[in-house]
User: What shape does this take?
Amino acid sequence: MSGPSITVNGPSVPTDGMAVATAECPTGYTVVSGGYTSDGPHTYGGIGEKGHPNSTNTGWVVPTPFGSTPGAAIHAWAICLPYG
Assistant: This one.
């Protein structure tokens, strides 16, 4: 059995829209925690508390607010552990 795995994945956030950044665990792993980073010419702050496990506990989901900042990107990350 392998140790912990951190997976990073996330889309660019569209201007004045809503996007969801998702980090998926590898097969055979379950998410135990997660968060996000923000980069680009503009960044987000204060939305990490909206992150949560997906419906199957196999990834971490971070929604962005409406009226998003142009040029910003958000990337979800997940801490995943093997199960079974």
